[in-house]
Structures are given as C-alpha cells and as structure tokens.
Amino acid sequence: METNSVSKLIQQKKETKASISKKYSFSNKKPLLGIFLDKDLSKDIENKVHVFLEASQELDVEVVVLADGNLDSLHLPNVIYLPYNRNNRKTLLEASDMALVFDFSDVEEMLLNGVIPISSLRPEVSDYNPNRETGNGFIFKKDSPWAIFAALVRARETFKFPYDWKHIIRQGMSSVKS
Prior knowledge:
This protein has 178 residues and is an alpha/beta fold.
C-alpha cells in the first residue's frame, strides 16, 4: 500500500471525524471507537457490550454506537447513539479510528476504511505486535468484556504513536488487497 494513499485516507478520516465530532459535541482529538450493531444481539452479547461500554467510560476515547433496534439497556452517558442507516454507517466508517468487531462484522470494509479492528480471533485480523511491527488489529483471546477491554487499552495506547498507528492502517489495507 502506497504511503501517499494511507496519508490521504488518514487526512480524510481526520476531516470526517472533525465534522462528526462538531455535530455531536465530542472531542476529535481522542480516538473514536465505532461500534456497529446491525443485527439483533443475543442477551449474552448485549450484556458483554454493556459491561464493555461501562468500562470504556474510564478510558480517554469517544464511543459512537450505530445500532439497529432497541438497545435501551446499553444507553450510557458519554456514548453517542446513532440509528442504523446507510449514511450513518458510511460516516462512522470514515470517521472511526477503531471498531469493536463481532462475528457478523465486515472486517474487510473496516480495514479498507482505515478502521483498526478490536476483535476475537478470526482469519482477517492479525494481532498487533509492537516489537515486530506486525499486525492489523488488536485481538482479545477470551470472550469476556474484560478481555475486550484489555484489547481496547492496547489499541488506545498504540494510538498515541502516530507512526505505529499509520503502519497498522497500512498493513490492514494491504491485507485486504492481497
């Protein structure tokens, strides 16, 4: 993947993020975590997402949930909720720095949009290794809200290093086109 195209994508992402942050009154300086819920969730997944959202309140991230359906149990302060439609999905893909990924999520679309997945083990996502500078996402190995939270913490800390973050985006985009 050419450095210029990744740089251009990151610049477009910053512009879209600035626009959405102004519209919904949140900081565009913090990483934006997108959560795309385009399916009805099982009670188990809904409970994990709720615990995860509560825990994410303790990190310095902005959270936007794109949801199709009734998610009254997930509503928390400092989380933006958008109704699921094509326009909101496109905007959130273009603005998000990272996304919580589920089995039903389209990871390739996220990677092509420079969104770094926080995911369970799956073939499209390789865990970022800072020593080897390899990987295109952050994997949680246990299916628990706290394991997901730990992966988010790793992503949040890596986001603080622009060179590393850009490298992860580049690896994600090139992994899809390979």
